[in-house]
Amino acid sequence: MSAIHIVRDYPHPPRKVWRAVTDPELIPLWTATGAGARPEGFATTVGTTFTFVAKPRPGWSGVVVCEVLEVREPSLLRYSWQDESGGEVTQVAYRLEPHGSGTRFSYDHTGFTGAGGFFMAKILGIVRTTMLTKGLPAVLNDLDGQGDLRPESPLSAKRP
């Protein structure tokens, strides 16, 4: 079985990181460095079904169907992940923990099987690494102390 495991440390408190990774208006700002997915119908409530909608690519509609499986604010979000055309159901987990004066963020995407799953994990791993290395830090740096996007931020113009 293949998996994606990425750990990043951010110099921001867990509540701020939690807001950036769970606010439907902020998520597309940091995922823009990858496939640019925006969540539709997302809420941090167990049982919520939602979709991530990204730019379609050859062989992919750009839509992923998800269900929130577990939430412990501000330390854990776990949800299922399945291409809208079917296929295997995998799971994504965000784990946040205080680390020094900031936050350690762990991203895990598990459940990939077979040769196709191996290649999917490799491709998605590259995209997720970019999002968590470039996209998320840019959003975090443009949030004020309350976790709101600063009006003067260049990201403000990109909000949905």
UniProtKB/TrEMBL annotation:
Location of the Activator of Hsp90 ATPase homologue 1/2-like C-terminal domain: 12-113
Protein family per UniProt: Belongs to the AHA1 family.
Coiled coil: none
CDD domains xref list: SRPBCC_CalC_Aha1-like
InterPro entries registered for this protein in UniProt: ASHA1/2-like_C (IPR013538), START-like_dom_sf (IPR023393)
Protein name: ATPase
Gene3D superfamilies the record matches: 3.30.530.20
